[in-house]
Design brief:
CATH topology: TIM Barrel
Strand order of the largest sheet: 1-2-3-4-5-6-7-8
Number of helices: 11
Number of domains: 1
Radius of gyration: 17 Å
Order of helices and strands: EHHEHEHEHHEHHEHEHEH
Shape: globular
Bound molecules: 1,3-dihydroxyacetonephosphate
Distance between the termini: 14 Å
């Protein structure tokens, strides 16, 4: 293992799921985050924003981080329904996901929008989890590497460093489908991302940036996916909604 290899991060993206009663899941995650797991892997839960503050308060002292799922690029103003990075930070978030494919697909977000959101995350002192990934059509057309490279170059702010940036590779066709790329396909894309990061954050810092894999990560496939070179953790959707599965995925790092 390289000395530069970053500490892994397993992050749960709850998407539009979770009510106040879901605090029970969070307390089960706290209870299951054993000293053995704490020694090996960071945990992050990104609930809907309605639960952020209460989750952040409940997580004080637990070493489970809490994050938002999106933010607006501006700090404040006339943007009905939007939430700024400063508001997320004020609610207790330390991370925010930006550029998730569901935002790109259903809200028309382009790389420049994602980059502006990541800039706002940094302005507010948050770590931006920048999501990229190809569609099924793009993969079948052999365009995966070009698409991922272009998204990465367009979405990563110039002030990024290993503390304020996490990259998540989420093939769109693998999200919520039960399908996953082969380990070799994941390795190929993550190697490309690492290579691009050398240009974007510099040779010395690039090995320290965490690159997560996301898309149908489950307890049954986590060990294989997390063992792939340049995979430094997971961004988990459906399987993060229950504490047992989420902790079992993190448990892939117990070896
Ligand atoms: P699933 O784990 O449900 O496929 O979702 C992945 C994802 O979109 C995480 O951001």
């Amino acid at each position: 293992m390289s000395v530069d290899r970053p500490r892994p991060l397993v992050a749960g993206n709850w998407k539009m799921n979770g009510l106040r009663s879901s605090a029970k899941v969070l307390s089960e995650i706290h209870a299951g985050y054993t000293p053995g797991l704490k020694a090996k892997v960071d945990l992050l839960v990104c609930p809907p924003s309605t639960l952020l503050h209460v989750f952040a308060l409940a997580s004080v002292g637990s070493r489970v981080a809490v994050g938002g799922q999106d933010c607006h690029a501006k700090e404040l103003g006339a943007h009905t329904g939007d939430i700024s990075a400063e508001m997320l930070a004020d609610a207790g978030a330390t991370y925010v996901i930006v550029g998730h494919s569901e935002r790109r697909q259903f809200h028309g977000e382009k790389d420049a929008d994602v980059c502006a959101k990541a800039v706002s995350a940094h302005r507010a002192g948050l770590t931006a989890i920048v999501c990229i990934g190809e569609t099924r059509q793009e993969r079948e057309a052999g365009k995966t590497l070009n698409v991922v490279r272009k998204q990465l170059r367009g979405s990563i702010p110039v002030d990024s460093n290993p503390q304020n940036l996490v990259v998540a590779y989420e093939p769109v066709w693998a999200i919520g489908t039960g399908l996953t790329p082969t380990a070799a396909d994941v390795a190929e894309v993550h190697a490309l991302i690492r290579d691009e990061l050398r240009r974007l954050v510099g040779k010395a810092e690039a090995p320290k940036v965490r690159i997560l894999y996301g898309g149908s990560v489950k307890p049954s496939n986590a060990a294989e996916l997390m063992a792939v070179e340049n995979v430094n953790g997971a961004l988990v959707g459906g399987a993060s909604l229950g504490a047992a599965d989420f902790l079992a995925i993190a448990g892939a790092y117990l070896g």
